[in-house]
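Notes to self, C-deglycosylation enzyme beta subunit:
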Amino acid sequence: MFDKYTIDPDSVTDIGPADSPTGFSFTTKLGYYRGLTLSMLEELTVAVDGKELPREAVSFDDGNGPITLEEMETAYDRRWNFGAPATLSVTYPGGFPKGEHTLSLKQSLRISYMPFPAVRFTEKTIVKG
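result:
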């Protein structure tokens, strides 16, 4: 339902030195109509052109400082509210590739009243000059 809002395609930007980017970042929103504590995010999987990137390469920042996906597992005191933007930063040598590429994000969410994780999936075509 909210999947189409989980990636802001205009926010994709390289991180690191301009002449030698070490990765890229983009703004994301929660694909669920209520907020969740970060420990309830089972997984955030980023892929470029269908190739999933390593979990260790992704960090999350809700405005309270970056946190690794492993650290999120015990982040009981941090909450991601519905509609609130967060930044995903990805270690990806060379930055986001030039040309037209597909960026995808899968959010696996642990919802208290569901017996299985709710999975939200979005992909966007990003054109970088």
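- The chain has a mean pLDDT of 92.
- Residues 69-72 form the longest helix (4 residues).
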